[in-house]
Each structure stands twice: as C-alpha cells, then as structure tokens.
Amino acid sequence: MSSVEIKKGIYWVGVVDWDIRYFHGPSYSTHRGTSYNSYLIMDDQVTLVDAVFAPFAGELMENIRSVVDPSRIDNVVVNHIETDHAGGLPVVLQAAPKAKIFCTAKAKAGLLKHFPEAKEWNFRVVKTGDTLPVGRRTLTFVEAPMLHWPDSMFTYIGEEELLLPNDAFGQHLASGHRFDDEVDQHVLMEEAAKYYANILYPLSRMVLKKLEEVKGMNIPISMIAPSHGIIWRGDPGKIIQAYQRWASGEGQEKALVVYDTMWGSTATMARAITEGLISEGIEARQYKISKTDYSDVIKEMLEARLVVVGSSTIHRHFLASLSPFLDEVGSLKPVKRMGAAFGSYGWSKGAVKGIEGRLQGAGIELVKEGLELLWVPDEEEKKECFEWGRSLASFAKNK
User: Which residue among 11, 36, 195, 294 is the active-site one?
Assistant: First the structure.
C-alpha cells in the first residue's frame, strides 16, 4: 500500500503484513495478519512517529518518498523499541542523517543495545509532559511504562486531537482499509480483544492507571492511531471503553469448558458439563485443546467469568497437550476469574489436582471441588456431570 492521509498533513506510511500467522513466537496466532503502522507529520519540521519491522523497511521508505524526500525528516519519535516497530530505524536514519530521535530514557538504553550504529544517533530523552513544537502542531509525550514494555510512551497531538499510543489499542489485522468505520466491526473488536488478552492481560492494573491518567489530562481525542491494525476515527471511545472493561475484569455470563481426552471419557464428561451450564442459561463454549488454537481460547477468557478445565490422568498428571494453555494462563494472570477442574482416571488420580494447582497459580479462584470419575462414565455419572455443570452456572452469573 502507498501512503494514506489520516489528518490534513499527517500520513500513514506503514506496511501491511498479510502473511504473518504467529506473533511473539507460537503463543499468539495471527490468523488475519497484521500491519506495522508508521506516521509522517508534515509541518515546519518533518516528523516520523515509529518505524516498522526490519524486513519491511524498504516499503516504509517507498511510502515516505511518496510524500517527502526522507532526507528532510527532522525528528523521529520512537514510542516503543520492540523490533516490529524499531527494526527499520537504521534504514530510516541512514536516509535522514540529520534527524533527532525522541524517546524515553529506557528506550534510548534499549536502542543502544539493539543497534550498534545507535551510538551515533542524536537522542533527545523525554518524559511525561515534555513537548516538541514542530510548526503549527505540538507533540506532547506521555510515558506509558509496561504498556507493554518499560520503554513505551504515547504521543499526543493536541491540534489534531490525535493519540499515537503505539501498542495500546491495536489489533493484529491486515486490511486494505485503514479506518474503523471501513471494516467489519465484529472482526475489528474480536481482534482487539484477542490482542488485549494475549499481550496486555497481565498488565491490567497499569492499563487502568494509565486510562485514569489520560482521563485526568482532560484531552480531547477524535482519533487513535495505534501501531498495529486499524485506526480508530469513527468511534475512538469504543476501544477506550472496551479497555476499561477488560482491564477491570468485567465479565459476561459465559463459561469455557477446556479439556483434552485420551479415549473419550473426559470428552463425555465435558459434553455433559457444558450441557449443564447451558441448561441454566449460561453461554458456554467447549474446546478440545489439542484441536484448538489456545490463543483464541485466551481471547474468550477475556469476557468469560468461569473457566472449567478437564483432562484424563496419565502418570498421575494431566495430559501434556494442556500444558501450553495452562502455561499461558499462568503468565497472563486473568483478572477476577473463577474456575474448576474435572477428569477421568484409571488406576490413579492426579490430573484434577494438577489442573487446580495451575489455575490457582494463575490467580483463578477455585469455586467448586474437582470432579473425578473412574474409567468410562455410566449414565448416572453423566447425570452427575450435568448437575455439576448446573451447579457451576451460578458462578458465571453476575451476582
């Protein structure tokens, strides 16, 4: 794609990555690709905000050239040093040798470690409240440590009511369109939720604090231009409100039944438990984890109050296929979530106890004693599973 004017004299010059299918390693699937968004501000001083992933640096430079000669760039703002945004910086600065770099102190330290040539760069370290007048516009910087790296910051342009928050409010979504009012809203919010759940979930307390800080600044925001995915211009308040819900742990009357099975006994239990939940009016979704992308399940946890995890017992432990999912849940620390465990066993127990330990370690409150059945569930035991599911439904409801 070529450059796109998002405000008068401000251009998206980023790139679309249609092919990427995993982000941050295999833990986060990106079924719909992504974009690396970079923004060019044409004023008395030409300013570039954020770069792109290094393999796409050539395309970034082509897009900049469609607007201005890169040698005219006076300033480069680095909101975040992760390589999907800063990887193209050496190419940019080679073409714009006079440019000054504006970033946080931690960002400068990180860039010096990432790029040997950075020792020659002209750094200007900034902190919250610092400004950069570039002509008729003034850029204001707001530090945002751990949203989602220690170096992160936001850039705000008051004259345009434009917030450039880098990784906050983004989505992994490749598209030929640039704005929220041009794309399917269900897809947009689904990808925004998945992005929050798989990247920002463990930082929810800091997200809430930063939202309150920005609210306290009483600044008008008519557009939010993140560094991944779609730009919010039709209704930027929509994603701010969603972040408020997600960060505060608000949930819906929804439950997830996540399991794996060796020979079908635990699957039989899972189905009966799911039916029990549904019978009480709960939206319940069932996932066999060995057949499911677990980063999609993590996204569902963002709004499901209850997660019920099951496994057959093998070697006094749960099935290894559940480990990546439980590892990710443990690292993301879902907010205000409840859970329970179930499973079948043969000559020894162990899976349920192991699952309960992992759920508790993730900060999930266990609300019911685990359900364990020997060998293949008979008709009475299927009813027991159904009733166990029914009894869990109250915890998924908004009490």
Answer: 195
CATH of 255-396, one of 3.30.70.660, 3.90.320.10, 3.40.50.360, 3.90.1150.10: 3.40.50.360
- Say whether 19 is catalytic: no
- Is residue 195 flagged as an active site residue? yes
Burial class (CB in 10 A: 0-12, 13-18, 19+), 153: buried
Q: Which residue in the list 43, 85, 143, 148 is annotated as catalytic?
A: 148
What Cα–Cα distance (Å) separates residue 167 from each residue in 156, 280, 345? 14, 39, 44
Residue 26: band (very low, low, confident or very high) from pLDDT cuts 50, 70, 90? confident
Q: Please say if 114 is a catalytic residue.
A: no
Active site residue 24: yes
Of the options 3.90.850.10, 3.90.1010.10, 3.20.20.140, 3.60.15.10, the CATH number for the domain spanning 4-248? 3.60.15.10
- What pLDDT, on the 0 to 100 scale, is given for residue 399? 56
Report cis status (omega within 30 of 0) of the bond before 148. Answer: yes
The amino acid at residue 264 is G
Instruction: Give the residue-averaged pLDDT of 320-345.
Output: 97
Partners of 287 in the beta sheet? 258
Catalytic residue among 84, 180, 191, 260: 84
Give the number of other CB atoms < 10 A from CB of residue 323. Answer: 14
Give me the mean pLDDT over the 104-111 stretch. Answer: 98
What's the token pair of residue 185?
A: 């809203």
Model confidence pLDDT, tens digit, residues 262-281: 999 999 999 999 999 999 99
